[in-house]
Design goal:
Length: about 160
């Protein structure tokens, strides 16, 4: 791929990720907001729901803060290698830190949400921990693979002599 194609691919991938995360966050916010007023919902579920909603909104804010726009291409031409290499590496870093800024608030909220009072505490703790650790591990693996793809694009970009 030429430099211009790599840049367009990076911009499109970043915008697509931002759109997917926005739709997912909207669904999460709508679903978990319903648990704030439910009469049969215990305090742990309400607090867990609040963490999940806050985490989903924070995720959208982070993703859109790092989403690239087509106008960026006009502001920074493909020949501005230092800028574009920095953008590629920033996107890869964002993906690698998913367990911290993405998974932690959602998983902690989900863990609290899964502890209804009808479960025995040890079994509930174990079940919730296994489920959310599996979710966090899956998020980590998928995003590390995506980060590797972005870093491969950065290598291609740095080796490309123009285009």
């Amino acid at each position: 791929m030429s430099r211009l194609e790599l840049i367009h691919h990076l911009i499109q991938g970043s915008r697509d990720r931002a759109m997917r995360e926005t739709v997912a966050a909207a669904l999460v916010v709508v679903f978990f907001s319903g648990f704030f007023s439910g009469g049969t919902v215990n305090l742990a579920m309400r607090f867990g729901s609040a963490l999940i909603v806050a985490g989903a909104l924070a995720i959208v804010a982070v993703v859109w803060a790092h989403a690239l726009s087509p106008r960026m291409l006009a502001a920074h031409p493909p020949g501005d290698s230092a800028h574009w290499l920095g953008v590629f590496h920033q996107q890869a870093r964002l993906l690698r830190w998913v367990p911290l800024w993405y998974g932690s608030p959602i998983c902690l909220g989900g863990w609290l949400f899964m502890l209804p009072s009808v479960w025995e505490l040890p079994f509930g703790l174990m079940t919730a921990s296994v489920v959310w650790l599996a979710v966090l591990a899956g998020l980590t693996i998928l995003n590390r693979q995506a980060a590797g793809g972005v870093e491969n694009m950065a290598l291609q970009f740095s080796y490309e002599q123009g285009g």
